[in-house]
Design brief:
mainly alpha; two-stranded antiparallel sheet; 5 helices; two-stranded antiparallel ribbon
């Protein structure tokens, strides 16, 4: 049986990333200082759902032995395969130079989520958490 997609959590995490792009880094689970952490989509969804503060611990959530990817996938209602296609999407081919790779943009992440889950993020449909 497939897990049920938590579209509310998808909206909240994407709204936060859209409102605070300086706090988003898809290439690392959690980075930066404890006072100004940047997080990937998975870590942001986890932090919003649990209201926990995350710090970098090699991909592990402090105080929890489950990796961020496994925990966030369960919270978002993703299968392991879906989670891998979304969470580990950190580079894309450059439009100007297809032989080069570049970092994922917010629009790329939204498009990937829609391709994998069918969920389409509509900006402005949920208030971004502070």
């Amino acid at each position: 049986m497939r897990p049920r997609l938590n579209t509310g959590l998808f909206r909240k995490a994407l709204a936060h990333i859209e409102a605070h792009p300086e706090k988003w880094n898809q290439s690392q689970w959690v980075s930066g200082s404890p006072l100004k952490p940047t997080m990937c989509f998975a870590a942001r969804a986890y932090a919003i759902a649990t209201n926990e503060t995350l710090t970098n611990a090699g991909g592990l959530i402090i105080g929890n032995s489950r990796p961020i990817a496994e925990t966030a996938a369960a919270l978002l209602g993703l299968t392991q395969a879906q989670a891998e296609r979304i969470f580990f999407y950190v580079r894309r081919r450059s439009v100007k130079s297809p032989e080069l790779w570049t970092h994922v943009r917010f629009e790329d992440l939204c498009r990937r989520i829609e391709q994998v889950t069918g969920f389409r993020y509509q900006p402005g449909t949920d208030d971004a958490p502070a």
